[in-house]
From TrEMBL:
Keywords annotated in UniProt: NAD, Oxidoreductase
Presence of keyword NAD: yes
Family classification: Belongs to the HIBADH-related family.
GO biological process, one term: glyoxylate metabolic process
Entry superkingdom: Bacteria
Keyword presence, Ligase: no
InterPro entries, sorted: 6-PGluconate_DH-like_C_sf, 6PGD_dom2, 6PGDH_NADP-bd, HIBADH-like_NADP-bd, HIBADH-related, NAD(P)-bd_dom_sf, Tartro_sem_red
MF term (GO), any: 2-hydroxy-3-oxopropionate reductase activity
Organism of derivation: Streptomyces actinomycinicus
Pfam families, A to Z: NAD_binding_11 (PF14833), NAD_binding_2 (PF03446)
The protein's name: 2-hydroxy-3-oxopropionate reductase
Amino acid sequence: MSNLPKIAWIGLGIMGSPMSENLIKAGYQVTGFTLEQDKLDRLAAAGGTAAGSIAEAVRDADVVITMVPASPQVEAISYGPDGILENARQGALLIDMSSITPQTSVDLAKAAADKGIRVLDAPVSGGEAGAIEAVLSIMVGGERADFDEAKPVFDALGKTIVLCGPHGSGQTVKAANQLIVAVNIQACAEAVVFLEKSGVDLQAALDVLNGGLAGSTVLTRKKDNFLNRDFKPGFRIDLHHKDMGIVTDAARNVGAALPVGAVVAQLVASLRAQGDGGLDHSALLRAVERLSGAQV
């Protein structure tokens, strides 16, 4: 245990809390900071150490992991006198597991290098269930040596762990992931409404569909959400709205057309505008129901 790197974890939300707890279970010493006291209490109850500030959390850490909602939050915790770069030790490895713009990751890596701090962008896919079960897919951008050093940490958090290229590459792949997931959820939602309006047994239909070419991890994970209209957030519409903005902007910058993705991005935005931003992204079903004449 004493040979394992000391870890600071910044951001203990829906994803961050179970992920940090999995590191504790794997034998790592984890010191965490977040803005919500109940999340700090949860970390302490799991065997971690609650810090009173970012500076306190990162001061003695070998590895600093961040998991916050978006680029502005990553910049807020990283820069400035109270941020990670001013308070982490030289030689520390900063792993940002948030989903942000590729350019934010590139800029962070450059600024950290000036402080003698190494950076990996390592966003994840798998949602709350994947975080709890430690089966996340982790897409990484950065240097090979840093990736190799971080691999045991990643192994405690996920199952599919791939170095995708230089800084920003992990975020680019995550953007593509979010595009695929959103389009997939939208297709599933449309199928659910079609099946129900046709009078088909929805449970039976989804079971057989998931056993064929129409099957997917999305359908496996979200089937019960659709069946039970359970939209407790595993991944909020608000965050997927942010991610669709990232992928559409990045695609525009490289000249890639996303005709279906653009439509789904607008459907996500409309759902958010209707007050459903705090629901799970499987709540795209609600948007299809509204378009089909249901009072939701």
